[in-house]
Design a protein that fits this description.
The chain is α/β, with parallel strands linked by helices. Helix content is about 45%, strand content about 5%.
Length: about 450
Amino acid sequence: MKKEYIIISVISLLVISIFTIFFVVKTVKNASSSQNPNIQETANNSSQESEKEKNDEPENPNQPEEPSQPEEPSQPELPSTPEKPSTPEKPSSTIPDISSLTLEQKIAQMLIISQSGTTLSNEFREELKTYQPGGFILFANNLSNYNQTVTLINDIQSTASIPMFISMDQEGGKVQRFKNYYDVNITTIPSMEDLGKTGNITLANNVGTVIAEELRTIGVNMDFAPVLDVIYDPNNTVIGNRSFGTDKTLVSQMGIALGQGIQNSGVIPVYKHFPGHGSTAKDSHNTLPIITKSKEELLNTDLVPFIDTINSGAEVIMVGHLSVPSLSGNNMPASISKTIVTDFLKNELNYHGLVVTDGLNMKALTNTYSESEILINAINAGVDLLLMPTSCSSAVNIIKNAVQSGAISESRIDESVTKILTLKAKYLTNYTTLPKSYLGSPEHQNIINQIPTN
């Protein structure tokens, strides 16, 4: 028994000794660590500094540190004039759903208005803010120099809760609103007749790119070009050298190529003047031209470029103020004829894009119809965008009263506005301007120099 007691005592002493040694070692280790609290941090910093020395690029002192994120590799320096730079003019805008708009707001989206002068008057600014029209068209009298033009367009857009179509007739040749200013050189575009003589489809596409890129330097997002009229009447002067020529196939190919160049460069092309303004010598600015060709003749001549561009995906077509009895059955101008706009263009030719009128102030309409008759007939015809009504306030009130009286259905308004908002969502939601350096650039001039002129 005594022997067992001795063995148990020895084992107990060994266990106590082991625990004592473990406690002492741990205490010493902790004491050592407390005397050097920065050892681990120093090691980490040393590792980071070593890694940083591998990058020769100096840090940007204006860039806040983000230690939690791994450093991104440096990007190659961009050339001074990149191929497709874009600087946002303003933050991207969200296109609303049509259900959030009032009747007045929907009607206003169908209007592209105009105003003379190089600045916004207080009265006109308030009208823009109050009615919120869908677009604005610029003419030469709105433009005096580069900075003024940019300021004007920015002022116009700043009044809108929904981005506006900022449009212009920039065809080239004699219809070229955007020309040289005293403070900047702008590429001069030759006539489409001169371009058509080259027969060069690739060149036509490149010219479209030049037009669109220069328009984007000032904030224009819609161009009323190209002209798809085929010259059949040799006495036609209102179109004349605005056309690519007298051959329907050439006009079709060159017009589509130019339009696609404009479109692919971020500007909306508008193909005009449906169903063709080339078979008359009369000017619809002054009187109503009457096209006497049969429907069969038209389908094989004037209409060919329009049919081709519809098949190639045209998104906006302008309808001219032309009387075409073989299509309408009467002398009503095509722009306000339901038989031509809806029954023929939309249904028979299977066109699903936007339809815009030519200017509603033109005498082909105003010589015969009142403002109210023009607006109501155009909308009921199936037109989506009304170009240059007398005023925004007058047009909204006339159309609103027509809806309330039953002369126009609100569903007809909704049909157009849905398409307008869809096109705006595609082109204007993230629309950006291009640098001023694009204007008159050597690259653009080299393209234009390929067009022989007289």
